[in-house]
Amino acid sequence: MSLPEQPLSPLDGRYRPMVVGLGDHLSEAGLNRARVRVEVEWLLYLTDHELFGSQRVEHEQARQLREFAADFGQPEIDQLAALEATTRHDVKAVEYLVRAKLTELGLTDIAELTHFAATSEDINNLSYAITISAAVREVWLPRLRAVIESLRTLSIELRDDAMLAHTHGQPATPTTMGKEFAVFVHRLERITAKIEATEFLGKFNGATGTYAAHLAADSEQDWPGISREFVTGLGLQWNPLTTQIESHDWQVDLYQQMSHAARILHNLCTDVWSYISTGYFRQIPQAGATGSSTMPHKINPIRFENAEANLELSSALLESLAQTLVTSRLQRDLTDSTTQRNIGVAFGHSLVAFENILRGLKEIDLDRERLAADLDSNWEILGEAIQTVIRVEITAGRSSITDPYAILKDLTRGKRIGQSELVEFIDGLDIGQDAKDRLRVLTPATYAGLASQLVNYIES
């Protein structure tokens, strides 16, 4: 027995609530709404400038046309589907939909200016730029910023909580948990600034980017100037030199930066997962939740594992988009058309990851006792401080020790040294008394340098 029709992608199934905002922009319907808007605005631009003997559309009719584009909904979706079933061409179906609206409004006298001198890509490239810009600015970036702010709050809260660092997975010079989160905040802020500075480009120059049809219609007009004014009037930046397609380089830049952000967050997830695994963070039990189907005690770090997987999917798709869209055979081929239909999928998987990271960060609690115990079990990490101070003493003429690094290496490498042994070693060193006094009071918990103050760099 066949199942009732089911969503194929989890983005349209279990993850739907996390990505619903994207559908308004990056769905087929969202793209078609933008296409209708571009067709209507181009028609109104031509009539506003009374080109080819046309007259300005009356205010109320122009309002109704723009309202028709803005209110694009299920009736229009159904109409387009019926039209495309005949035309077998999505943009041509949009043109016919607009023409039908002109007839309804009594504007058949300007119907031939619909899609005037435009190739499908004149409409498509502007529509994609409009929808992608809206999706990034209204949906994607606000969720990324929410993650950054959650990390910033944690960083400030945990700025003084010293912990043993683990370079190469081995005990190393201490840091603070807050400073480590601050590193991710700083990295994400840099990449976010680049994404926010994205140039959303558009072109409107005909079948091969030469304005040939435009000149055939009227060789006296400044068609590049008209193109610039029209494109920038849609809130986009103008690309003056293209083939049939807008070259997509701005999309390549954007997707590479978004993928970079995803990789930074992937790094965050693996680190937090490791901190949970070592016991630095306790997971807060969630009422009714089950960690394992057979081991009742378990609380699994599923939020961060889920985020990892979705970030990997998102990054892979974004990088694939960037690699494909950078190339177009000669003046035009259709690989970009198929590729761009999956932009929403790439965005969607990152949104799922953002939501899981936000939830996961709220479900962990720092185990300060575990951090303190780990520090107290690794006094040998102070070997770095001791040999550094000895070097200063040698330079200042207060010590005759040779090769202080080797001495500390012999004392500490691969060994566990307790506080009493370290103090005894310090007392026997040929260094000044002030240096000895400084080293004797040093502990792993206080050997965190400026970690707490460094958090100042990411405070709002």
Automatic annotation (TrEMBL):
UniProt domain Fumarate lyase N-terminal: residue ranges: 57-307
Pathway(s) the chain acts in: Purine metabolism; AMP biosynthesis via de novo pathway; AMP from IMP: step 2/2; Purine metabolism; IMP biosynthesis via de novo pathway; 5-amino-1-(5-phospho-D-ribosyl)imidazole-4-carboxamide from 5-amino-1-(5-phospho-D-ribosyl)imidazole-4-carboxylate: step 2/2
Pfam families for this protein: ASL_C, Lyase_1
GO molecular function: N6-(1,2-dicarboxyethyl)AMP AMP-lyase (fumarate-forming) activity
GO-annotated biological processes: IMP biosynthetic process
Keywords annotated in UniProt: Lyase, Purine biosynthesis
Limits of the Adenylosuccinate lyase PurB C-terminal domain: 328-447
Function according to Swiss-Prot or TrEMBL: Catalyzes two reactions in de novo purine nucleotide biosynthesis. Catalyzes the breakdown of 5-aminoimidazole- (N-succinylocarboxamide) ribotide (SAICAR or 2-[5-amino-1-(5-phospho-beta-D-ribosyl)imidazole-4-carboxamido]succinate) to 5-aminoimidazole-4-carboxamide ribotide (AICAR or 5-amino-1-(5-phospho-beta-D-ribosyl)imidazole-4-carboxamide) and fumarate, and of adenylosuccinate (ADS or N(6)-(1,2-dicarboxyethyl)-AMP) to adenosine monophosphate (AMP) and fumarate.
Protein's name in the database: Adenylosuccinate lyase
Species name: Salinibacterium xinjiangense
